[in-house]
Design brief:
Layout (H helix, E strand, L loop, with lengths): L6 E7 L6 H9 L6 E7 L6 H11 L4 E5 L8 H11 L4 E4 L5 E2 L3 H11 L5 E9 L13 E3 L7 E3 L5 H7 L8 E3 H7 L11 H12 L2 E12 L5 H7 L3 H18 L5 H15 L1 H28 L2 H12 L33 H12 L6 E6 L3 H7 L3 E8 L9 E2 L13 E7 L8 H11 E12 L6 H6 L8 H9 L7 E6 L2 H9 L8 H5 L8 E7 L8
Parallel strand pairs: 1-2, 1-4, 2-3, 6-10, 11-12, 11-14, 12-13, 14-15
Antiparallel strand pairs: 4-9, 5-10, 6-7, 6-9, 8-10, 15-17, 16-17
Helix pairs in contact: 5-10, 6-7, 9-10, 10-11, 11-12
């Protein structure tokens, strides 16, 4: 998704001459092109003002420079609100002047908001970026801090707020927000001039709107001694500022009459920790002693407990997976040579492979547009294309399908006109085609330049007996074979392959269980050695040779 709704990018800065140019350049490096950049000067006295003005002069159609009246320093929240008031986009993104974005940040976040109309915000992980120094001792210190919540899910209010209060692992600065949500919550709290201005804003959004939490990292948080966080820690001010934030949350919840028990419990726990630091220290020390006691018990257990019992206790203590010894595995309902269901899970709910297919198409729904071709029926075209689709066609290999608008065999379909479709959705079809290469050549030919082909194909899967007997069930794929296969027709740079699944999902799928019978965390965990579903996005180039 190279372009789409206008997105306003807001960078606030105060004496940021050392890093601001790199931050701005990371916006210019975005693969998404429909953006405007608002540089908000919070009273700088160094060369950052000059740098910002030069970008505004050189790129007047894309960049604007703003400042408070009289070039005053008003603080982070007031500066972000100034940018919001002047923003023209329906989506708003924030970037700190000492941080950088990865190039696909806007592209992927806009696509998610387009495909998730209920979501008011999308956010992801943040990379703690130490290696920017180039110092050899910093090269291996980078790490990605993931949100402490289920990933690739839409979280309803106030699901995310308890986790925010506990962990502080997510910042609003990594997000993309709908403008209407910002306006509904009243923007940033201007009483927070420095630290916790983003956390207060997040708290208001978490209580107001659903938030999509993505399993992706688009933001690099530069770790350096001059940041406001580092200064607060080094000067001993972090605790008092956090307590101020927690007290503000308490007042905000009370004013709005919010009674959520878990939320209040977490808030009181955190406030106790910062109101009574010595008591908190004693409590943590008690936990340390408890850990020492566990160590003592482990040493005793090695002498008196059998090996299976020791392994079970070790797994419980460490929160790891228990690996029972030979003879101790309990298969329960799975001890059977016939599957629970041969109907893929349709008779029990949503099949597991369909769960992955819908997750894949939902993430890229913005590219389901224009004239769209789908196989057998147009279920996914209607579900994920919406009003972006101008015409929907259905292809079937043989006569007799009342939903079909086109009857054709993809391996020999010379009668289909070239450069016709903006998008083709080919789900769970290639395994039934013996001459896959010929089918892919047809699909390439009938796509328009810049047209998008969505392919899903099975990895670990049962045979489809009905299709096997009618026209054949020939193939199962891996991510590597799918990549090589598509690259015989499409340019390698235009092919993106992903695998979904793990050993539990594969086992459940082979047994015919439904997605509802597994937890979302069990379905979403990805193990590249157990590929249940393979997905491919292939884009036809602007200038494409005929095959």
């Amino acid at each position: 998704m190279m372009n789409g709704p206008l997105t306003s990018v807001i960078i606030i800065f105060l004496n940021a001459e050392k890093f601001i140019q790199q931050a701005i350049e990371s916006v210019f490096a975005q693969t998404y092109t429909d953006w405007e950049l608002l540089l908000v000067d919070d009273g700088s006295t160094d060369k950052s003002t000059e740098i910002a003005l030069s970008y505004a002069d050189q790129h007047p159609a894309k960049v604007r420079n703003l400042e408070h009246m009289g070039h005053k320093n008003r603080g982070m929240s007031a500066s972000r609100n100034l940018g919001i008031r002047h923003a023209q986009g329906n989506y708003i993104a924030f970037l700190d002047a000492d941080d950088v974005w990865l190039p696909n940040k806007l592209d992927e976040q806009v696509a998610i908001l387009v495909s998730q109309p209920e979501a008011g915000m999308v956010l992801g992980a943040i990379e703690w970026w130490y290696s920017w120094t180039g110092d050899p001792k910093d090269l291996n210190r980078d790490r990605v801090a993931l949100p402490s919540t289920p990933l690739n899910t839409l979280a309803k209010p106030p699901t995310l707020l308890p986790s925010l209060l506990r962990h502080e692992t997510v910042s609003a600065i990594s997000s993309l927000v709908r403008r209407r949500v910002i306006e509904e919550v009243g923007g940033f709290e201007e009483s927070f001039e420095g630290m916790y201005e983003d956390q207060a804003f997040l708290a208001k959004v978490y209580l107001k709107a659903p938030v999509f939490v993505a399993n992706a990292c688009w933001y690099r948080w530069r770790k350096h001694q001059g940041s406001c966080c580092a200064i607060a820690v080094s000067t001993g001010q972090h605790g008092s500022r956090r307590l101020t934030f927690l007290n503000w949350v308490e007042e905000y919840l009370s004013r709005r009459g919010i009674k959520d028990k878990e939320l209040w419990s977490v808030l009181e726990e955190q406030r106790r920790r910062y109101r009574h630091p010595r008591l908190s220290f004693l409590s943590e020390h008690a936990q340390y002693l408890a850990g020492r006691m566990k160590g003592l018990l482990r040493r005793i257990s090695r002498r008196i407990l059998p090996v299976p019992a020791r392994r079970w206790l070790w797994a419980r203590w460490h929160g790891g997976a228990y690996c029972p010894p030979v003879g101790w595995v309990r298969l329960g309902s799975l001890r059977r040579v016939m599957p629970i269901s041969r109907k893929w899970g349709f008779d029990r709910g949503l099949p597991i492979d369909r769960y992955y297919i819908e997750r894949f198409l939902s993430a890229h729904a913005a590219d389901i547009r224009g004239r769209v071709l789908e196989i057998q029926d147009n279920t996914y075209t209607r579900k994920f294309g919406g009003d972006r689709v101008t015409r929907s066609d259905v292809l079937h290999a043989v006569e007799g399908n009342p939903k079909a608008t086109i009857v054709a065999d993809l391996t020999c379909a010379d009668h289909l006109p070239s450069r016709t479709f903006d998008c083709v959705i080919l789900t769970q079809t290639l395994q039934f085609i013996y001459d896959v290469h010929a089918a892919l050549k047809t699909l390439y030919r009938i796509l328009k330049p810049r047209g998008v082909l969505f392919v899903t194909c099975p990895g670990i899967s049962q045979i489809s007996r009905n299709d096997f007997d009618r026209w054949g069930d020939y193939w199962r794929f891996t991510a590597l074979s799918a990549q090589r296969m598509l690259e015989t027709v499409f340019p390698a740079a235009n092919v993106r392959v992903e695998a979904y699944g793990n050993v539990l999902a594969a086992t459940a799928f082979l047994q015919g269980l439904a997605a509802q019978e597994l937890r979302p965390t069990e379905l979403d965990y990805s193990d590249p050695d157990y590929q249940v579903l393979i997905t491919v996005i292939a884009v036809k180039p602007d200038v494409a040779p005929f095959l």
